[in-house]
């Protein structure tokens, strides 16, 4: 019979282990390690020394309330040689009454809170530890082979989020704060509060071995639409009973408020807030993550991969499809063993509640490369993300007699200046090329066809010059608090004179495309244009007219409708401008 030895205490070597596992920013008061990487602990014996072959024992590591070997949430192993492919341990040193062990978790072990037990027939608790994903481990599916990127996408607690329009991109500083006190515990609680865990804890804890599963779970739990999630969305402009989304600058306050309120949703969030919190939680759990902004982002409500903008005769939009000035989501880095190797790498997921996926308000993760290649059968939600960055736009006007007149369209408008923060510096990186081939290129159109599109733009003169052309131009002095002018430039490309009706107006708009009050109008019933003539028509926007209409986004949407009174052809131009805050110069 093997003799038992008596342990007086276990030293988890938190300071040493946490530093080696890149978790010391969480503190060193408890053990936090990453999977697939050894950590050490010291067993202090009451008396005597450890004798191999005389003393034997097993170790048990388990997570979840109902751990089991079947679900992979319990591992039992005897000290031997560590192969780093599964749970294992070895005796690294035995000196006097101190027995040092090296323990290594499996690189595909479920993440979460673990207990560690020594079993010699009688079980002794050695303590608890938190196990995280490990971007430093080649066998982990979140492995990232670049130290500078690991510093940016795992260890960096501050970043920039981009908003505005393609012609006026703003950067907003954000504190992700994934290593701040209490944040990791809150992130682990998010996992435990998800409906799948409440329904079947064993299966859910087992699923946490897979970063795809965890990322999809987070995209659902960051919003509160189906569960006890973190943030409640609000795009109404009325935030009196909460915090305006534009007032947040840190995930830390949001997560702490959710934790302290027993998981009541925090009021309020919009897309960049949802994405920033998702980035914080992902990084805290060990998944490399970054925040991404897509300008002129399409919201395809009927899943036909075409954005149909339909207006009535009063120029009011009556269709549900829309194009947001910008939309923000996250990308997480991981391999996809469930898919082809070319789909490893960045995966897009979106915690903003827009459409349901498998009955839940979540989106992704979908490989960014699958979106680029038009592989829309790939999990998860590839068609929706594809439409966000590469849908074609069609515009119509519906007349009182039921006729529908096509006004315009574009195959290049959606998905511009897709942006994220650069690695290691406060600069914008344009990653549009990761989502699609250059607009209008042969390859981009090939992907368009592969995605089972049927281009409805044929015959609209996309390739030929229209008889009338209308553009909107703006001045450089568009400061909030000032009066300024904007212009439509109308060109007659035909060999005959034209009489036109021009309606040019301005409306307040939110970043997600919701139009507000009108703040400027120019209505020219009879605009005469000779062959080849170009005319510029101004619209003055007065501060007294727009200040009460615009939202926190400081955006004004300009639309111009031009109608050929002879042929009834309609032409439309649109542009969104962002007003800069007026600068105040202080001088002595």
What is this entry, summarized?
The chain is an alpha+beta fold.
Structure description:
By secondary structure, the protein is α+β, with helices and mostly antiparallel strands. It folds into 3 domains: 7-132, Sandwich (Immunoglobulin-like); 147-450, Coagulation Factor XIII, Chain A, domain 2; 468-581, Immunoglobulins (Immunoglobulin-like), CATH 2.60.40. Helices cover 18% and strands 37% of the residues. It has 13 helices and 31 strands. The protein has a 6-stranded antiparallel β-sheet with strand order 18-17-16-14-21-22, with helices on both faces. A 5-stranded mixed β-sheet has the order 2-9-8-4-5. A 4-stranded antiparallel β-sheet has the order 1-3-7-6, covered by helices on one side. A hairpin with a 5-residue loop joins strand 19 (392-398) and strand 20. Helix 7 (251-260) packs across helix 8. It is elongated, with a radius of gyration of 29 Å. The chain starts with 6 loop residues before the first strand and ends in a 7-residue tail after the last strand. Residues 454-464 and 584-588 have low confidence and may be disordered.
